Amino acid sequence: MGGWGVVSLEEAPDDLRNQAKRNYEHIKNEVITEEKQSILSKYQVNDFDSVLLIATAPRGGSSLLFDILRHHEETCSLDGEHDRWLTLNGICYPAFESDVIPADFESFDREKLLTDLLAEVGVAERSGGRTHRVDNTLVRLPLQFPNRELPYKRIREKLLEGVSLDEILKEFGIPPLQYDEYSEQDANSPFETETIEDRPFVSSHSHKRSLTVDDFKRTLVLKASGDAYRLPWIREQLFPETDVKVVHLTRNPAASINGLYDGWRLNRGFQTYNVGDLDLEGYSGSLWCYDLPPGWVSEGKLIDVCLMQWVQAHRHILDGRVAFDDVLRVRFEDVLTDTSSTIKEIIEFADLGESALLTENVKNPNKVMTTKDPRHARWRDREDLVKSALNRADKTYTEVVEKLEYTEESEWI
Predict the structure, then answer these.
(1) What is the number of domains present in the chain?
(2) Mean pLDDT of the residues in the chain
(3) What is the 3-state secondary structure (H, E, C) of the chain?
(4) In a domain, 2, yes or no
(5) Whole-number pLDDT of residue 270
(6) pLDDT for residue 367
């Protein structure tokens, strides 16, 4: 479901980005429904009355939590993470040395970014809407295949006729394996690297419809693990006047870094940046995966990089949360073991009220963004490797573990 985000080329990202922008603007202004065109011409993402932001480290369980919450009938949401829209606007590496965006960074087209962030937002409603899903498929295609000139109007007609996207992609020589909702088997080789957004996992669930003017009274649910490094910037530059509540989702270090280790070693869309040559023990790929923390390294052990990603993300959330008045810390372990009560706590925190559609989803949540079948304490399959990294960890790791209250290994499910 929530497409990881970006793969940006170090060599010529501007050419690729400009091509994606051109095709996206064409779709936004000429291909999607007139109703959606009207919304995007008059409104921006900061026009919502309230925002619920999920902040966590990668492989922290945010995709599952996001998918549950976006089924609440008083919410709106994107179809996945919003990193791709920041990348389209050049607000990413290599413009920055890492995923950290300074709170005072203002050198970007704010109006355009806020409009772009609204481009695929839909409303949770049981009946859903086919045109919404078709429009969202179209606005994402230039980000996913920016170096291809596709007949977007014809693609839209075929989608509305009921032709599957798989069939349409095959017609243009694009393996469906490279797109959303593909088979669980891993690709034999990495996907095309010239993308703004990686294809897998992004989808609009069937209970979403297009935005109307009245929907801005609802709560917008957002999540992207990269937000861990830009919370003050989000508060000051994107939503300075919006009621923003933050859910800090935590997960024990062993399970998180084990999930990261799995994801790095799969050709399944977790690649994010071309940072140059990588010499990481345990990794044979050529692209960086997941978030790019400050102090990232290109040499060493992959398991240590995974630990760094967990530590740095949560350290920055702990530091950046002071920019917000309302922050709720939630354990992913509780989302798994006491789903109903934990979701109820979040719903009350966000002032959302009851939702029959949400209740149904809580009882039978979707399986999203998994690298392997979910299983408690799966990290113990490579316990020696994981603990070797934890034993080498520095003082910052110890401080984060203590602040997040993960000092008892018996609780690391």
Answers:
(1) 1
(2) 89
(3) CCCCCCEECCCCHHHHHHHHHHHHHHHHHHHCCHHHHHHHHHCCHHHCCEEEEEECCCCCCHHHHHHHHCCCCCEEECCCCCHHHHHHCCCCCCCCCCCCCCCCCCCCCHHHHHHHCCCCCEEECCCCCHHHHHHHHHHHHHHHCCCCCCCHHHHHHHHHHCCCHHHHHHHCCCCHHHCCCCCCCCCCCCCCCCECCCCCCCCCCCCEEECCHHHHHCEEEEECHHHHHCHHHHHHHHCCCCEEEEEEEECCHHHHHHHHHHHHCCCCCCEEECCCCCEEECCCCCCEECCCCCCCCCEEEHHHHHHHHHHHHHHHHHHHHHHCCEEEEEEHHHHHHCHHHHHHHHHHHCCCCCCHHHHHHHHCCCCCCCCCCCCCCHHHHHHHHHHHHHHHCCHHHHHHHHHCCCCCHHHCC
(4) no
(5) 81
(6) 65
Give ∠ CA 120-124-125 in degrees, rounded to 5: 125
Is 348 a member of any domain?
yes
Q: Is the dihedral of CA 217, 215, 136, 180 positive or negative?
A: positive
Task: Compute the distance between CA of residue 84 and CA of residue 374 in angstroms, rounded to an integer.
Answer: 27
The single-letter code of the amino acid at 5 is G
Report the amino acid identity of residue 237. Q
Residue 198: both structure tokens together: 């990686």
- For residue 282, the enclosing domain spans 13-411
Distance CA 218, CA 179 (A): 30
Residue with tokens 């070693």: 265
Average pLDDT, 10 consecutive residues per value, the chain (413 residues): 38 76 96 97 97 97 95 95 93 96 97 97 95 92 87 94 88 67 41 56 77 98 96 98 98 96 82 92 92 98 98 98 97 96 98 96 75 72 96 97 96 91
Residue 1 domain-assigned (yes or no) = no
User: Among 402, 330, 100, which Cα is nearest to 227's?
Assistant: 100
> What is the sign of the dihedral through the CA atoms of 152, 154, 158 and 164?
negative
**Does residue 5 lie within any of the structural domains?**
no
pLDDT tens column, 292-341: 999 999 999 999 999 999 999 999 999 999 999 999 999 999 999 999 99
